[in-house]
Write a structure and sequence with these properties.
This protein is of the alpha+beta class. It folds into four domains: about 150 residues, 2-Layer Sandwich (Alpha-Beta Plaits); about 55 residues, DNA polymerase, domain 1 (Orthogonal Bundle), CATH 1.10.150; about 100 residues, Dna Ligase, domain 1 (2-Layer Sandwich); about 90 residues, no CATH class. It is about 25% helix and about 30% strand. A hairpin with a 2-residue loop joins β15 and β16. α5 packs across α10, α9 packs across α10 and α11 packs antiparallel against α12. The radius of gyration is 34 Å and the shape is elongated. This is Nucleotidyltransferase. Keywords: DNA damage.
Amino acid sequence: MSRRYLALALPDLTLDRLRRQHPALVGQPFAAWASRGPRRWLTAVAATGLQPGQAVADAQAIHPALLLFEASPAADAALLTRLALWAMRFTPLAAVDGTDGLMLDVTGVAGLFGGEAALLAAVVQSFAAGGYRVRGAIAGAPGTAAALARTAGAPCLLPGEAGPEILAALPLAALRLPPATLQGLARLGLHSLGDALRQPRAPLARRFGRPLLDALDDATGARPRPIRPLRPLPDFMALRDLLEPITTRPAIDRVLAVLLDELCAALAAAGQGARRWVLRAFRVDRAVQELAIGTGTASHSPAHLARLFALKLDRLMPELGFERMVLEATGTEPLAHRQAPLHTGPEEAGADLTALAELLDRAAPRVALSRPLPLDSHWPEYAAAPAAPQAVPVVPTGWGGPIRPVRLLAEPLPVTVTMEEPEGVPVQLLQGTRQHRVLAALGPERLEPEWWGEDQHRPARDYYRLQTAEGPRLWVCRLREGAAAPRWFLHGELA
């Protein structure tokens, strides 16, 4: 199946944003401005007789009642991202295209809407109903669709076998080339794509650079550019379009339950489970809200997933209501089926492990859970790292040989040690104001620097295991640095 792309151009994005923020602007002359050095100039205009690029002072002389707003590219970009999320109600692959456009991969989607023409009409009507001036086009390459959408009066639908003559008639301004490049091409008498495509490529590249050739190849589909969707394509998805917008928590719970049952049934039929689940709620006012949950092990249990979502559903703000809800499953993997032991029924096999995994999932939002993961280092502080509770450890060769403390201090504590003789074993240890009498001592166990590591010049350590009269079994180390007296540290407690 050949790919199809739907491009949307929003030429009045800034003006539409301001009208939505300030409804009183409807029917009023207003403009957005930006600074260029000491000069202020118009970037977007909703007033007759004015145009972008004009000086603010000149514009005010023509329209004394002109309302001015400082341009905000960041606000425009944020709005464009929100609109791309909204466009995901038509296809899961939606991307921002430049500063004033969207690109949708609609391959295989048109049949759900009655054909490409009906799909294009539905998308354009949806944005127009939200107060956005939009032009759309569908073609076989992203650049082709974008060029058609940015050209007023151009065909909105380009069949896969159509036309070089249609593309050749498009103005070069549809390629988003820099103004200097467009002016240079115009001086050569090149005004349309056809004019530029009929020229030898080498002279064009020498005069205008590689970006011009890339733009031409993009527009013709000779070298189509990839799009970068806001969200990856989900492995499994379920959705519901609602006849009436829903605003209450019970209604949301019911729709979510239906989506979970449908999606989990599809996963179970495929022998799959998922680790990440995303609920996307589309509001009537074209805002989109997302909730995501994760599980430590792949799951397709509707009851367990419903409990995890229930912890987050209060974050949704329906306001005027949700008209569509989509549930996506990503991070899918095959679920292994365990054979039931002879002494248990099938329903009991693996039940303990499943219950533990679900308990850890429910506790994760409230408690930071982790397990130690062995690492290939004999330095105590580098011998393990925290990992997810369900992580499967890979034990390095030789790891875990010598006895190590059950509790390793994050920061070793300086202590004062009394020795039986200079090179003997400790007989007494002073930790702050606490004094420990040593009944038995084993050591030293010397740890040398790791020659393959970065810290090869750190001093060696001598570790001792001490049994104290007060009860605790302590792990202490002696650090020698040159001719200075050795220093002692408490590094952990043994079992």
